[in-house]
Amino acid sequence: MDKRKEANLHVKNSIVGALIDLMQEKNFESITVSEITTRAGVSRVSYYRNFDSKEDILTGSLRDLMDCFSEKISVLPGHTPTRRVMTAFFHVARENAAIFNLLHQAGMDDQIQESLDQFILSCPHFPSLDRRRTYPAYLFSGALFRLLIRWYSRGMTENDSELSNIFCQYMDGLL
């Protein structure tokens, strides 16, 4: 990667990190661009070169989170059992709990749910949950979203495999 791209990536990561830090101190709506740039140690010009708004930062973080899910699942063979696919999913969810919780706290539940819907509809490991059977896919996705929120709020006490077993036990009829 050339030095300019590397420097810009550092700026973007600094801005995202600053927003994450600030969201642990105060609510999303009350955070200003000035606070973000000061915390990140970057100029407003650098901020606006990379992001249009605070929401844009979160949208990018959500996109990155969904990319992590897709990357982890895409390396699994097509015949992988659903429980193993979901265990891999919950592993990524555990690793990214802070980002998910911040998106949830920022009121981005609709965007998270829509992203999960698209993930489930496009995932080759769930062939019975495709665009021809949208209601089961949305049931699956909605249950997954609510389970994630509950799991995070309870401190993720179940390991990835246990949570996968719980989820799949109730979702077997859809798959």
Automatic annotation (TrEMBL):
The keyword DNA-binding applies. Residues 9-69 form the HTH tetR-type domain. Residues 32-51 bind DNA. SUPFAM superfamilies: Homeodomain-like. One of its GO terms (molecular function) is DNA binding. Keywords: DNA-binding. InterPro entries: Homeodomain-like_sf, HTH-type_Tx_Regulator, HTH_TetR. Gene3D superfamilies: Tetracycline Repressor, domain 2 (1.10.357.10). This is TetR family transcriptional regulator. It comes from Frisingicoccus caecimuris.
